[in-house]
Amino acid sequence: MKTILSAIVLSFIIVSSANSAEEQKIIDHNQLMDHGDGHLMDMDGGMIMGQNKDKLPAGCDKVSEDVKIEVHAGRKYSKEYPGTIFGFDKHEWRVKPCTRLTVTFVNEDHVRHQWMMHGLPKFMYDKGMFHLEVTGPAKVTGTLILPAEDKTYLVHCDEAQHMEKGMKGQLVVGKGSGTFPSIPGVTDPAIADNYGPGGNKPPSPTTPVAVTKADANAATTPAAAGTVPVAVAAVTEEPSSFFSGSLIIGLLVGFVGAPFLFREIESRCQGKTAADVLNCTMQLLTDLFNAIVRLVTWLVNQVKGKDKLLPKE
Hints:
The protein is an alpha/beta fold. It contains four helices and 15 strands.
């Protein structure tokens, strides 16, 4: 009896394991209703926007090549990228200009996902985008013809927080037009995360971070790819230029006033000993300094309207 029960239990375990290991069935949304202007959808969660199989963009004399790609989306594709939740099986695709691209988008999650491109010419693609959307596990297939220019297009899922949590990539046409930051496995993050011990600790509020004015200005501009924005707690002024306004004014005054100063020293100190000449010169410089201070004070008072008379010695 025990042998029979053991055999039944073992058979149940084997069957259960086989069923759990079996891949989930992917529904193919291939009976979409055409709503015009390249917009197709059904009532079960499948949608295509920007379908274009034969209309050539400006600058394309013919379709350069036909390319078919299959894009898989789901949680399991985020595992190798810490801090993400969703992902594509690939995050970059490269094709030639004027390519007719057919994309089969396979959603392996039990939620809604999208494969959406931006930046297409609006005279041909409504709102400038090509959009595949499906509630999974399911798949949908759409086609578009890419423009003639070299350009890099952002591809992402527009569901709330899906792109921010890893579901974005880029489609490079021809030589492309640069790269986007934070494409998993392709480009550096705009803000790098550190998941090690003590990583990403904010600066202590009691310890100001001294940076230059240039750093403060840079902190207000968007971060370039692969850089980490600087948290600014205090700003220190950069040293002023050697040729400052005060220095230039002083040089001009000295250049113009030097002949008068030497003439006054000669008239006051002529015929005296070296020690007397030194004392005489120092007294003259003191009188000159006091006169300049009085003149500046008078000018300030004139501006403020407090005093109309030049102060006496």
